[in-house]
Amino acid sequence: MPIPRESSFTSRLRTPAVSARIGRWLGIAFTIAFLTGLVSHWAQAQTWWIPYPTAPSWGYRLTQGLHLVSGTACVPLLLVKLWTVFPKLFQAMPKPFSREGVLTVLERGSIAVLVAAAIFQLASGLSNSAQWYPWGFSFRPTHYAVAWLAIGALALHVAVKLPVIRQALGSDVEDDALNRPGTQATSAGLTRRGLLRTTWVATGVAVLATAGATVTPLRRISLLAVRNGKGPQGLPVNRSAEAAGATDAAQDPAFRLTIAHGDRTVELSRDDLAALPQQTRTLPIACVEGWSASATWTGVPVRDLLDLVDAPASSDISVQSLQTRGAFARTTLQGSFSDDPDTLLALQVDGEDLDLDHGFPCRLIAPNRPGVLQTKWVHRLEVIA
Ligand SMILES: Nc1nc2c(c(=O)[nH]1)N[C@H]1C(S)=C(S)[C@@H](COP(=O)(O)O)O[C@H]1N2
Ligand SMILES: [Mo]
């Protein structure tokens, strides 16, 4: 088969008039995904000099929900956009050592980076939310690094294309001024308006289908939502006690929670914990994978427990789990969180003792904290700074 030329593609739909209109929404969705991704990284990295805030308690639920929804919206938008610009791959190259040649190589290079980075972000993000890790790298640092690459290449791309974008958006979508060479004057099938409408509908469906992971009334129609809200006590479970290898230790009557500050330690059984003054708070579990659910938790404020070992205000705490398998057995609770009266070591959810899968005998629940750091099966709180 001979290699096609740019002019071999004759469809009127493959035009900057369409690409720019889809590109505008793709740019908006990508930027939202980038910014909310930064928030998620900030919440999890815990090393930035501005501490991540504990309020509003639903903040991470909102930003991470937006992250998943905007990222998913990018998928149909990117596919259609790539289809509209595909013929440009076969564009004739200007002389390589001319000024125009150098500029073309730079521009195409930046687009290659942009396309590769965008596809990588969408693919790795989607498979992460499906808990499918067919790769050998660590997800979060890689997704974070490539995000900077993608947003940089996107900014460059928009800057280079600004004159074309302006012209395209300033004229009617059926206008022929920006047509590529070889474009047919009329088309029998889908109009450009029709293609755009189809794209918006597909994007809307993708958005609704993911938003259900966060917005409870949408859950029934959420085909793409990874967690369907089922789980003991009406709350989804990401890793069960069985999977975490915590089943035996969590049910052992000899269980003791240790609170440690230097040489000072206090050990409490679950009954001891239950005998302390209890607080009840309604706080969400907001998983980094996009699903979230609100529940009412009852337990002992972490600050009250720290008082038992005279921990100073704003203490950073290492929260340690009984789990024997997998990541997240230890998390750090920063001082702003350990001071917050809403941060609980919960014994109950919605008025019942925690299910084994929700962290029995006790679990951490703090406001505005990514789900992955809401440690279950806690057996030790240790002042680290
Ligand atoms: N010890 C421990 N705690 C954990 C996890 C874990 O793997 N181990 N998973 C976390 C994740 S990713 C989420 S989203 C929440 C989910 O809480 P749930 O299962 O009670 O809904 O628990 C968190 N707590
Ligand atoms: Mo999670």
From TrEMBL:
Keywords: Membrane, Transmembrane, Transmembrane helix. Residues 252-384 form the Oxidoreductase molybdopterin-binding domain. One of its GO terms (molecular function) is oxidoreductase activity. The keyword Transmembrane applies. Pfam families: Oxidored_molyb. InterPro entries: Mopterin_OxRdtase_euk (IPR008335), OxRdtase_Mopterin-bd_dom (IPR000572), OxRdtase_Mopterin-bd_sf (IPR036374). Gene3D superfamilies: Oxidoreductase, molybdopterin-binding domain (3.90.420.10). The chain crosses the membrane at residues 22-45, 65-84, 105-123, 143-160. This is Molybdopterin-dependent oxidoreductase. It comes from Nocardioides acrostichi. The lineage of its organism: Bacteria, Bacillati, Actinomycetota, Actinomycetes, Propionibacteriales.
